[in-house]
Structures are given as structure tokens and as C-alpha cells.
Write a structure and sequence with these properties.
about 190 residues; alpha+beta; 8-stranded mixed β-sheet; 5 helices
């Protein structure tokens, strides 16, 4: 997980288990679900975001989405807008591939950066586009939350040496995430 992303993580206890899990990730048989608060109104209720992710030349600590396979590694994320508000949305993301910053890049690429994601356009600069009262309101919410609003909700994978049995692990949405969404409803119609 990215440093400021909360949620479920897998850790292998043995080298054999690590290889077992690694194979499943490579074969894309691990099912992952993330929940996020994103900026803006989504055009489509659901869809997929696909492209090739590469490092930005201007800042090698960030990445960009490219339309051509000449640049970067293939990435694919499905999404579902779970709840659309006037200024933000709660969105479920289902990454098929697992590239660094993938969900954050994909969401930002569609014009809906993750709330609080300074690196990909979801931080305080996003607030500057609002009227002064909303700018102040959302800036305060960003300061209070203190990270990007992305949470690894669940992961499903095949258990090691268990004849194909799968297990799904869930991480409840943190209270501060739920509180953030509720507190932002003040300006909703």
C-alpha cells in the first residue's frame, strides 16, 4: 500500500507462501477492492480506466498515464461510483493490475483526484477553484484528515496448500474516513 493508504495488507510468513502469493498476483487472480473519496462529479456510474503507467521525467517520484504501450507498464482498474455528491464522490475501485500509485493516477486522469492526494491533484490546489467559503471549508477538511482518502477495503486470494480454497480479508473503513464523508455533506444539496 502507498504510505498514506489505509486498509488490508498481505504479508507472507515463509518464502514458499511468498512465491504462492506472488504467482497469484502475476496471474491476476487476486481480487482487490478499494474505497475512496474523490473530487467532482463522475460522468459514468461505472467503467474501466486503462493505460500505460510510467515515471514522470519532470519528477521521478510521480507517475503518469500514457495512451501508448510504448511508454510504461499496462494498468487496468474497474470502478463503481457508490455515492455521488455535488462536489465529491465515494468510489469503489477494483484494480486488475497492481502498479505503483495506480488508483491515484487513474482517478486523477479522469479529472477526479483522490481527496487529499497532493501528488496527483487532490490537495489544497484543488480547493482554489472554489468560492472562498468552500475553499476554506475544504482546506480545513484536508488539514484535519491529513492524508489521501484511499482505503484497501478487501482482498481475496487462494490459500496456500489448501486445495484451491479462497479467503477474503476485509478491513473496516476507518472512523476518520466515515467522519470525513459525513462532515463534507454540509454543502451538499
Amino acid at each position: 500500500l502507498d504510505a498514506d493508504t489505509s486498509g488490508v495488507m498481505l504479508v507472507a510468513k515463509t518464502n514458499d507462501a511468498h512465491s504462492w502469493l506472488g504467482r497469484q498476483f502475476k496471474e491476476r487472480s487476486v481480487n482487490k477492492t478499494y474505497v475512496s473519496i474523490t473530487w467532482g462529479k463522475w460522468k459514468n456510474q461505472s467503467g474501466k480506466i486503462e493505460g500505460w503507467i510510467s515515471r514522470r521525467k519532470s519528477d521521478p517520484t510521480t507517475y503518469q498515464l500514457n495512451a501508448s504501450d510504448q511508454y510504461g507498464k499496462h494498468s487496468l482498474t474497474n470502478y463503481l461510483v457508490e455515492k455521488q455528491y455535488d462536489y465529491f464522490a465515494r468510489v469503489l475501485f477494483y484494480p486488475i493490475t497492481g502498479r505503483t500509485h495506480q488508483i491515484r493516477i487513474h482517478s486523477s486522469h479522469l479529472g477526479h483526484p483522490v481527496f487529499g492526494d497532493q501528488r496527483y491533484g487532490g490537495g489544497k490546489n484543488k480547493c482554489k477553484g472554489f468560492q472562498p467559503d468552500l475553499n476554506k471549508f475544504y482546506s480545513e477538511k484536508l488539514d484535519k484528515f491529513g492524508r489521501h482518502a484511499l482505503h484497501a477495503l478487501s482482498i481475496e486470494f487462494e490459500l496456500y496448500k489448501n486445495n484451491g480454497k479462497k479467503i477474503k480479508l476485509d478491513a473496516p473503513i476507518p472512523n476518520e474516513f466515515v467522519d470525513l464523508e459525513k462532515s463534507m455533506l454540509v454543502y451538499e444539496t
